Amino acid sequence: MIHAESLLLKWIPRMREAATERLKGCFDQYFQESQKQSERAMQMLASFKSSSREKKNEGMMGLLARAQQLVQRIGPGPTLDAALLSIGRRVASYNAASYESLVIWAELLGQKQALGLLEQMLESEKESGKRLKAMQQKCNAEAAEQSIDSPRAKNRAPKRIKEPVERWGEF
Q1: How much is the pTM?
Q2: CB 143 within 8 A of CB 79
Q3: Would you place residue 149 in the very low, low, confident or very high pLDDT band (cuts 50, 70, 90)?
């Protein structure tokens, strides 16, 4: 999970940059929460006296690669905001499922310090998911309204951004 949290710290600013002004604050808050999650993960690792070598988190990498694709395909506006929020919700759900599993393991192994940190991390992900869902409902409605009213929606597909993949960088 340490790799997942460090990936988020790298990618949330990129998603924020692609979002409209209205959504930037949401990504700022998510970034701050991810910083806390990363600190908790490092604390937990220290309690096990383990090295902090990161193992690649392929699941998180896949979610963030999808975010990159959406930014390149959709372009700025309410539709992209809705898509970014959807990715954010998937990330929060992915993390919550991971932390739920780790909570069970910590309980079974009697790791009380790790259990406390993991429970905090799990609650944080659940709250993030709820906030992102509320924001996504608003953005989805706007995006749907815009696409119905748009003459472009009736006549042709949305303009695709021809931006190189390198802009977002590597994992």
Answers
A1: 0.76
A2: yes
A3: low
